[in-house]
Design brief:
alpha/beta; Rossmann fold; five-stranded parallel beta sheet; 5 helices
Length: about 130
C-alpha cells in the first residue's frame, strides 16, 4: 500500500473521480483542482500545511489556466522537481513536444486504461508494491 499524495488537475469532475477511484484503493491520497490556477493555489495550500504531493497529473485543455501554462508555472516554484503526468485527449506530437518543453514528465491519452495509469504512477512515485 502507498501513502503517496497525488494532485490531479482537470476541469472534468468525472475524470478526476475516475483517477481517484483507480488510485485510492492502492492507498494513494488524491487532492483535486479544477484548473491550472486552482492547481497552483492547491500546491500553496498543501505547502502551508507542510505537505508536498509526490506527483501531479494534469489535463492540457482547461479554462482559466491550461495545462501547459500550469506546468511552466510549477517549474518556476519549489515544486519544480515533481513529476508531472499529462492526461489529455491531445494526441498530436507537437502538443507532446510542447508539454515536454514545459516540463511534463510523461503523457497519457484519455480515455486511460486503469492498469496503464497505475503503472505510470508507480513508476513516477517509485512505489514498490
Amino acid at each position: 500500500m502507498s501513502n503517496k499524495t497525488i494532485l490531479i488537475v482537470d476541469d472534468s469532475a468525472t475524470l478526476r473521480m475516475s483517477v481517484e477511484m483507480t488510485l485510492n484503493p492502492l492507498g494513494y491520497n488524491i487532492v483535486q483542482a479544477v484548473n491550472g490556477k486552482d492547481g497552483l493555489q492547491t500546491l500553496d495550500d498543501l505547502d502551508a500545511h507542510g505537505q508536498v504531493p509526490d506527483m501531479i497529473i494534469s489535463d492540457i485543455n482547461m479554462p482559466v489556466m491550461g495545462g501547459i501554462e500550469f506546468i511552466k508555472e510549477v517549474k518556476n516554484t519549489k515544486f519544480r522537481y515533481l513529476p508531472i503526468l499529462v492526461l489529455t485527449t491531445e494526441r498530436e506530437e507537437s502538443k507532446k513536444r510542447e508539454g515536454q518543453q514545459a516540463g511534463a514528465s510523461g503523457w497519457l491519452v484519455k480515455p486511460f486504461q486503469p492498469q496503464t495509469l497505475i503503472a505510470v504512477v508507480k513508476k513516477f512515485t517509485r512505489t514498490l508494491s
